[in-house]
Amino acid sequence: MSETPLGQVRGLGSAREGAHHWGLERSTSLATLLLFVWFLVSLWRLPGFDHATIGEWLASPLAAAPMLLLVLAMFWHIKLGMAVIVEDYVHEEGSRVFWIMLINFASIAVGTLAAVSVLKIAIGGGD
Q1: Which domain holds residue 99?
Q2: Cα distance between residue 46 and residue 96, in whole Å
Q3: What letters, b where the CB count within 10 A reaches 16 and e where it falls short, cover 58-84?
């Protein structure tokens, strides 16, 4: 027996996954905003912006940990936002899958590069 049109679409759409995605976008945007304010205040409090000063500051766990959280939140937020743009404006399924995969790969690759850079400075002392 076939389902009615309402039965076929029930459980799909924004009520199923969209609300979760919307919540993640808002959470990552708030986290990014708060961590970026921390970052700007931390830079403002430094005596200088030379390589040695920045390296010494980032070598502290109290600076490296929030910086890693900033990198994570920022790239996750970018990934979520770009995915929404693709889902809204790319209508061909094959192209949509390609762009979503490219966005995921690029955000993971660049985010990992940024996190490793922070860790290299934090562990290596900025050398």
Answers
A1: 5-124
A2: 45
A3: bbeeebbeebbebbbbbbbbbbbebbe
Distance from C-alpha of 25 to C-alpha of 105, rounded to nearest angstrom: 19
Q: What pLDDT score does 18 carry?
A: 73
- The sign of the CA dihedral 39, 40, 43, 45 is negative
pTM over 0.85: no
Q: Could you give the number of structural domains in the chain?
A: 1
Task: Give the 3-state secondary structure percentages of the chain, helix then strand then coil, rounded to 5.
Answer: 85, 0, 15
Q: Comparing 10 with 107, which gets the higher pLDDT?
A: 107
What CATH number has the domain bearing residue 33?
A: 1.20.1300.10
Cα 89 to Cα 83: distance, rounded to the nearest angstrom: 10
